[in-house]
Amino acid sequence: MKLGLIQASSQKEKNKTLEHYLNSKIQLSYVQVSLAIALLINSRSLDFVVTGCTSCQGMMLDCNPFPNIQCGYLPTPQDAFLFSHINNGDVASFPYCMALK
Fold first, then answer.
1. Is 70:87 a contact under the CB 8 Å cutoff?
2. What are phi and psi of 84, to 5 degrees?
3. How many Cβ atoms sit within 10 Å of the Cβ of residue 8?
């Protein structure tokens, strides 16, 4: 399974582990990120993408209108596993407000 992790630039401060890779001059909105996710999933470049925002609702709402995209609210790893295996989901939206600082 090919996995991807992508998030809007506004959230890069929430995840210090990824900050090194996300610290770039390119600024992406939720809509741009969701379009990139849809292209990556529909082109079969990736099988599953982890994304998110403060509440995870915005990114989830931006991803779901695209064809063949099933994005869910997944605050725990167990939710992500069940979502991908039972609900055939392919995008996990993580609520960064729940992440430890």
1. yes
2. -75, -30
3. 22
Prediction pTM value: 0.71
- Determine the length of the chain: 101
Distance CA 82, CA 97 (A): 22
- Number of helices (H), then strands (E), in the chain: 4, 4
Kindly indicate the confidence band of residue 16, based on its pLDDT and cuts at 50, 70 and 90.
low
Q: Using one digit for the tens of pLDDT, what is the confidence trace for 50-61?
A: 888 888 888 999
Q: How many domains is the chain built from? A: 1
Q: 34: domain range? A: 3-98
CATH at residue 49: 3.40.1400.10
